Model the fold of this input.
Amino acid sequence: MHNETIKVLVPRLPNAAALQPYLARIDAAGIYSNYGPLSREFSTRLAQLAGAPYVTLTSNGTSAIELALRARALPGRRYCLMPAYTFIASAHAVCNAGLTPMLLDVSQETLTLTPQIAEAALSNLDEAPAAVLVISAFGAPPDQAAWAEFEARTGIPVVFDAAAAATALHGVGKQPVCVSLHATKVLGIGEGGAIFSSDENLVQRTTAMTGFGFVGAERVSAIRGGNYRISEYAAAVGLAVLGGLPARLATLSSITAAYQARLQGKAVRLQSGVGDEWVTMTLNVIVPAEALQVTIEKLDAAKIEWRRWWGPGCHRHPAFADVPRGDLSNTEAIAPRVIGLPFHDRLSEQDLDRITRCLP
Done:
């Protein structure tokens, strides 16, 4: 009989000792927000990590998507194509940008909207869309090259919601890549987000939008924006996180490898590339349909927490029940089978054995 529940996720941010040098710098400078010195340093180092020429820091990942869509969406159009299978924040961001989500299906292999699915949907629309929001699945890097070709062919602007993929990016192009810096992410600072792009004008615009649309030294609002900045304290956490990032990535890679070894010969599968090309904070297995119910029952009986991190799809949430959608057959088939397993640095070898014994 197992007495202790195995937690599905245990976020870990820098402790007080790691933050102290950065807090001392804040005290010395007397600057607490409004693009202060720590914020600027964090921006520079974050852009270098992602291989991006330019970056806008935002208060959270949802606001990053909203601002990128506001900057890129074609005026006079209503729809934003996006996958139904994603965390609900993506749909909220689309609406906050003044657009209507048009929910499309995903590939059961990659769990993502593909250019082929999006292009096939265009002929069924009564008007051309304003943009496409492409979701990166659980920290996997998006296929930037394929979507750049899609935009070149169709003229429809693309924005990437790569919420959990900040540490998986290897170079960023013109199409903005939005990430979350929430505490549950590999590079988590508590709350925060970022927009990466090689388009300097775009990033200048989105950065101005984070500070009431002020452009240049004059406090004149040139474009509509809001207050989407991070404080110097959030930047302090970010700088401390970057300092410990290599060790963190190594730990997560090690845990992933331990799972991979135990899953050899089992019917469940992991996402392609996880542990080898990228790591995440929410490790998922895709369970065969015929084994789903018994797998869930075994996990529950063994007191192992699990999650459907993205739920059944945006179309299943009451707030988005009335938005237009295409055929969602793949989403309906795959969403229930994507099960998030415990994944954090407090798991023992015995915990991993206990978890994987429940899997087919």
